[in-house]
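quick q for whoever's on today - can somebody do inverse folding on this one?? i tried earlier but teh output was garbage lol. tokens:
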């Protein structure tokens, strides 16, 4: 595929575009990644037309819609926006993400000409992801109606749209305005919306932001968000206090009114680790899975049942049996007010239940018995397993046990798959935790990056 892209001819690019529909995910993903190198105006027109955004095949449209955002050449803003597949919510959301990325990189020609169309696409769509994506594209385009849209979307009935509005407010230059407009959203019933407010305060870094974080630490009841608050306060202060708000209040009392710290490096949540930093900053959890402490009470466990988990170890047991034991200890330790689900996967996800289930003793027993009876094997389709787990809107953490190498499903390449998952969940505040069993360092780095970007953590273990 790289050789075809290097040729640079229209005929060679036609073969790359044709490969987007290949049944083998390795081939299709490689073709999608290579599209970033398109620099021929004729090929770009093909991508905006029937060969790409107007293609009959869903996956071709979706792959092109994403790939356009990675182009290294400038694109006419109006031509791109007019070509977006308005009747295809998935393709439209990905296309708006590409508009956002290109605008942010300064690669849209005459971006102001696209503003009204982007706004109309968002307002006309019933899809929450499209509405959210259009708002963030408007932010990147520097649209004058952004504040008006933020005000409207903060009152939307859909949590995804409200969360996107909070995030958009904090992307603007006026952080005092963002604080004033979004502060009440910290009491939103949806944890993803509250998480976006916390992320904004963490980046603001003023005494007012620190005071708001300390105040929320006393009221927040979700473990992952409490950990996020503590991590944000640690980043702002340089201190190592835990989840007890009293020492944080004492620190706050000594700060001058005009105090301002260096901005936090990103949204609060977590850090990637290879086995170090295993204690949650809140100091509240007592549950871990295969050595990884859990910070969530709304968690789905994904277990890769592809071939490597069935290999025998020196003592004659399989890695699957080791996983059985770890899962048993984890579920036995869950609090009854937590909720969980299991999604082992091979070529397809194999969910235990349709969504989260309360961690009552009877449910934990039933889940363990079910998991220990699993004997499926085959290629590991992590993409579809993750999407299956994310169908429940209350999930805030995916914990994946894997050897690190997806081998099946529509996406294979981690360089492509992980940014797509982050885009899909960016207004849900879902953390991607992972336990990598006997995985090579090259794969560990990809999973660690996914964990760090989502507020999760990744550890590597050896079970040979």
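ok took a stab at it. sequence:
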């Amino acid at each position: 595929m790289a050789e075809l892209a290097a040729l640079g001819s229209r005929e060679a690019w036609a073969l790359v575009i044709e490969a987007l529909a290949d049944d083998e995910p390795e081939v299709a993903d490689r073709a999608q990644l290579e599209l970033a190198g398109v620099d021929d105006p004729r090929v770009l027109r093909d991508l905006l037309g029937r060969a790409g955004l107007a293609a009959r095949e869903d996956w071709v449209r979706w792959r092109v819609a994403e790939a356009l955002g990675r182009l290294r050449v400038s694109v006419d803003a109006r031509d791109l926006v007019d070509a977006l597949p308005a009747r295809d919510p998935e393709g439209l959301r990905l296309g708006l993400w590409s508009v956002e990325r290109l605008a942010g990189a300064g690669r849209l020609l005459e971006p102001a000409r696209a503003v009204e169309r982007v706004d109309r696409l968002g307002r006309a769509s019933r899809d929450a992801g499209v509405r959210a994506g259009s708002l963030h594209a408007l932010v990147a385009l520097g649209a004058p109606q952004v504040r008006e849209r933020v005000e409207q979307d903060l009152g939307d009935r859909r949590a995804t749209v409200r969360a996107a509005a909070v995030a958009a407010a904090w992307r603007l230059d006026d952080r005092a305005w963002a604080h004033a407009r979004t502060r009440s959203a910290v009491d939103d019933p949806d944890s993803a919306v509250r998480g976006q407010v916390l992320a904004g305060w963490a980046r603001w870094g003023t005494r007012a932001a620190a005071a708001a974080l300390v105040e929320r630490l006393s009221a927040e009841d979700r473990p992952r968000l409490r950990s996020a608050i503590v991590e944000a306060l640690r980043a702002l202060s340089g201190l190592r206090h835990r989840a007890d708000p009293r020492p944080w209040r004492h620190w706050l009392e000594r700060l001058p009114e005009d105090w301002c710290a260096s901005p936090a490096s990103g949204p609060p949540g977590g850090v990637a680790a290879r086995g170090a930093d295993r204690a949650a900053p809140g100091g509240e959890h007592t549950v871990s899975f295969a050595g990884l402490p859990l910070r969530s009470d709304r968690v789905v466990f994904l277990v890769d049942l592809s071939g490597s988990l069935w290999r025998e170890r020196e003592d004659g047991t399989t890695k699957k049996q080791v996983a059985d034991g770890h899962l048993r200890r984890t579920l036995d330790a869950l609090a009854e007010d937590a909720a969980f689900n299991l999604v082992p996967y091979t070529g397809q996800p194999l969910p235990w239940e349709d969504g989260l289930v309360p961690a009552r003793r009877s449910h934990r027993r039933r889940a363990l018995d079910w998991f220990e009876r699993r004997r499926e094997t085959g290629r590991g389709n992590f993409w579809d397993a993750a999407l299956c787990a994310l169908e429940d809107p209350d999930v805030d953490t995916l914990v994946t046990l894997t050897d690190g190498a997806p081998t099946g499903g529509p996406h294979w390449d981690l360089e492509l798959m992980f940014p797509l998952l982050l885009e899909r969940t960016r207004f849900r505040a879902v953390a991607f935790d992972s336990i990598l069993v006997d995985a090579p360092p090259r794969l560990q780095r990809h999973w660690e990056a996914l964990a760090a970007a989502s507020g999760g953590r990744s550890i590597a273990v050896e079970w040979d």
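fwiw The mean pLDDT is 93. also The chain has two domains: 2-184, 288-461. so keep that in mind when u check it
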